[in-house]
Write a structure and sequence with these properties.
heterodimer; A: 8 helices; B: alpha/beta; Rossmann fold; five-stranded mixed β-barrel; 19 strands
């Protein structure tokens, strides 16, 4: 029987929902290709939070993909395989989430034949943590980065060990964080004005509370300020922008549906 | 003819069956004994002998026990059920049978040897409006103005077919609904063909379906024996009736893939164009292998096999020894892994469509 492999296919103007069951180093992934796909279509890679709802990410960005002509790729970091993907730390078998994303993107692009001129990275909550740390440590560069509602950040501070800061750590020895890469990437930090609950999904370590603040809203502000201060210290223009979503809490679904998360992201990416 | 107050009393005291759920009974003004029944016509009938069906499913879903002398509000329709009855709309409004517990009045032609004779009923007549026009479910069919898109995004249809009756199609649908809900999606579930009954719709809803509908929502009591073009159109209308708020659709075709209507729909351009991926529910390993093979010959790639076969680890092992098609719901698996398996072949289907 013919196995169901996306690699069997060459992209020829098809559109809609695509999925792939990872069989090698790549992750399971979901993608949405808009009707109006063209050589000018950009790619948005969207990374889920610790609820790991990758398919939901693909579906919620799909209407925006149709409207703004971009391709959505939503990788799924399986909990058993990648339990610490947010920190970009290896899984039990030593697999790196950074490499896994590279392989996933490579698989998708080879399988579909799509060659996007622009690649943007979006992460929500735990996915935003991953996205920030990918840009610090990963191989690929991104045209724009959106960090939406991360629980905490890697601070631009070499005195704190990774992932708290940029200091040397055995966990990140193979590819240490490079702040220059992040500072050179236009970045939008998004957080809900009501994302202020210290719930069980929020990292409440004393060190993070003390350095970054008590809530996601406060932490987004402090990290942005720290990054801007670092840019000023270096004498370069800060490429980081902070926006709050009025009335928004921490629920991705609710924020996409009721608080313009999709619109704000797409407007900023289109600027 | 019944006086109106007597008719109103008869209707209000009758067991109203699930299959009549869409009808507006306030329009009932007469009871006509002389009309020739048509599929979808509503009738009042009295139970004269309780047979295979000892209960009737009410609009609420409650299964009411039947007794001789009970009055039932039913709908005429055909039945095709290999494990139960073959039945057709009778050519006259005389005594016939309760052919399905959902409320189908029909003349039984044959039955499975393990099935008892059907429950006998005597229709009192067909319900008509004040103008003498029969009340037929077509009158309350969903008008069909929406389209199967949500905010410009076409809703992916996961089509579930099987090797036959009781092969586990509805269980597979319910599992798919539950899986997709776990992935954060709002799933609409459709029973695209079959015989009017609430059982499958309740299963879909209990699994977490955002919306559950069947052919009754487009004015049909059952789909067996229908004109095939009309059936295609009805399936299209049902798909189009899905709420734009739903993210994805799971659709079930009744009976086995060799059954007349199921076979036709699977080979129809309209459903092939609409379906995004295909799941095959198999009763056993051999039917699973044969089903995948047959559908392949029809140009349809099966994304995954499920069904009753999955209840047996040995049966699953037999299947896997010969077939590379993934098996789902046989073991615990991450919902996203299942979703990744079942949605992928959408592209295979589209590629084949474009190649043909």
């Amino acid at each position: 029987m013919t196995p169901h492999r996306l690699t069997d296919l060459a992209y020829s103007g098809r559109h809609g929902l695509i999925s792939h069951k990872g069989e090698g180093g790549e992750l399971d992934y979901f993608a949405y290709v808009p009707r109006s796909i063209s050589a000018a279509s950009s790619l948005l890679v969207t990374v889920h939070g610790i609820d790991r709802k990758a398919l939901q990410h693909a579906m919620r960005f799909a209407p925006w993909a149709e409207q703004r002509n971009f391709i959505v790729l939503a990788p799924h970091f399986n909990k058993a395989r990648m339990p610490r993907y947010q920190k970009t730390l290896p899984g039990p078998s030593g697999e790196s989430p950074l490499d896994a994303l590279d392989l996933t993107l490579d698989h998708f692009l080879r399988a579909t034949g799509i060659r996007p001129a622009i690649k943007n990275l979006f992460g929500y909550s735990g996915g935003a943590q991953f996205a920030q740390r990918y840009v610090l440590r990963g191989r690929l560069s991104w045209d724009k980065l959106v960090l939406a509602a991360p629980g905490w950040f890697t601070m631009p501070n070499p005195d704190l060990t990774f992932p708290y800061g940029l200091g040397a750590s055995t966990a990140a020895a193979a590819c240490p964080p490079e702040l220059d890469r992040l500072m050179a990437t236009p970045t939008l930090v998004l957080v809900g004005s009501q994302d202020t609950h210290r719930d069980s999904s929020l990292n409440r370590e004393q060190q993070i509370d003390a350095v970054q603040g008590l809530t996601r809203l406060e932490r987004a502000g402090r990290w942005t300020e720290a990054m801007r201060a670092e840019a000023a210290r270096r004498g370069v223009r800060s490429l980081i922008e902070l926006k709050t979503l009025p009335g928004a809490g921490h629920d991705f679904e609710d924020n996409m549906k009721s608080h313009d998360l999709g619109k704000v992201v797409c407007d900023w990416l289109d600027e | 003819m019944f006086p109106n107050d007597a008719l109103a009393h008869a209707i209000s005291t009758a067991h109203r069956s699930f299959a009549t759920r869409t009808a507006d009974l306030a329009l009932a003004a007469r009871l006509d004994r002389s009309k020739t029944p048509e599929a979808g016509d509503l009738c009042l009938a009295t139970v004269t002998k309780v047979g295979h069906h000892k209960h009737i499913e009410l609009v609420s879903g409650r299964r009411a026990p039947l007794a001789v002398g009970d009055t039932l509000l039913l709908v005429y329709g055909n039945r095709y059920a290999t494990d139960q009855f073959e039945a057709v709309v009778p050519q006259a409004s005389g005594p016939c049978h309760l052919a399905a517990a959902g409320g189908i009045a029909a003349q039984v032609l044959s039955r499975h040897t393990a099935t008892r004779p059907p429950t006998d009923i005597v229709p009192a007549g067909i319900l008509c409006d004040a103008n003498g026009v029969a009340l037929n479910l077509r009158r309350w069919a969903w008008p069909g103005v929406a389209s199967s898109t949500s905010k410009g995004v076409r809703q992916h249809l996961v089509l579930v077919v099987g090797s036959g009756m009781n092969a586990g199609k509805t269980t597979a649908c319910a599992n798919l609904v539950r899986t997709l809900k776990s992935c954060g999606l709002r799933t609409a579930a459709l029973k695209l063909t079959g015989t009017g009954s609430g059982g499958d719709l309740w299963r879909y809803l209990d699994a977490g379906a955002f919306q559950a509908m069947d052919f009754g929502n487009v004015g049909l009591a059952s789909t067996a024996g229908m004109d095939l073009r009309e059936l295609e159109a009805a399936v299209g209308r049902l798909c189009a009736a899905v709420s734009p708020e739903a993210d994805i659709v799971v659709g079930e075709l009744a009976d086995g893939v060799l059954q007349r209507e199921t076979r036709h729909l699977l080979q129809s351009a309209s459903l092939r164009e609409r379906a995004g991926s295909l799941i095959f529910a198999a009763g056993d390993p051999l039917s699973g292998a044969a089903g995948v093979q047959l559908l392949g010959e029809w140009g349809l790639e099966v994304a995954a096999v499920s069904g009753l076969m999955c209840a047996s680890p040995l049966a699953v092992r037999e299947f896997r020894a010969f077939m590379s098609t993934p098996v789902i719901f046989a073991e615990e698996e991450d919902p996203h892994s299942i979703a990744a398996r079942i949605l992928a072949p959408a592209q295979v289907l589209i590629a084949r469509r474009q190649a043909s």
